[in-house]
Specification:
DNA polymerase, domain 1, elongated
């Protein structure tokens, strides 16, 4: 039977190897340090195998008596539970006693859709004319700004021509055909 401090030291190398972030590893280490500090004060067992549900409730009760928030209690429970889950995977213990104890309920953080001033304004969508790209890079290629009088406009600057007849005729597509071939699409549009 290994002492719990040795087990914790071995366990803290696992998250590094598994690719956990340094902040996660630091949080696990802080939780386990707190777990040991409370354990020493309460006289909890010195080996992982000796822990039972009663000791888990003693640890969680000590956190609650200290005035810890429900979120803090929940995180400590979850992070110490990972130690015991690792011990199960390594064959040190047969059962994770932390899983037998339900976690403290934590309220959901929901942002209200309305403020005291009333409903929020929806975000303003940028106008096409406000687009940061110059005309040759986006807007003109689309050919969406056509002068109705002459059929030419911004699109003409990019080499696009407005069809004077129906779209099928402009693309060289007869009404019966369902697809456009690549050669038909490359043809210049009639004026």
């Amino acid at each position: 039977m290994a002492q719990i401090d040795e087990t914790i030291a071995s366990y803290l190398t696992a998250p590094k190897i598994e690719g956990k972030t340094p902040k996660t590893i630091e949080s696990y280490a802080n939780s386990l340090k707190d777990f040991r500090k409370v354990g020493c004060r309460l006289g909890l067992p010195e080996t992982v195998e000796e822990y039972g549900v009663e000791q888990i409730y003693q640890f969680l009760g000590a956190l609650q008596e200290r005035g810890a928030s429900p979120g803090y209690q929940h995180r400590r429970h979850r992070e110490v539970q990972t130690l015991f889950s690792w011990c199960v995977r390594m064959g040190i213990v047969e059962q994770n006693v932390f899983k037998r104890v339900p976690r403290v309920k934590v309220g959901e953080k929901i942002k209200p859709p309305f403020t005291s001033a009333g409903p929020r304004e929806p975000p303003r969508l940028p106008e096409l004319r406000d687009h940061p790209l110059p005309a040759r890079h986006g807007r003109a290629r689309l050919g969406v700004h056509l002068d109705p009088a002459g059929g030419r406009g911004v699109g003409a600057a990019a080499g696009l021509r407005a069809p004077r007849e129906g779209a099928e005729a402009a693309l060289g597509r007869d009404r019966g055909s369902r697809s456009l071939s690549a050669s038909r699409l490359r043809r210049p549009l009639p004026l």
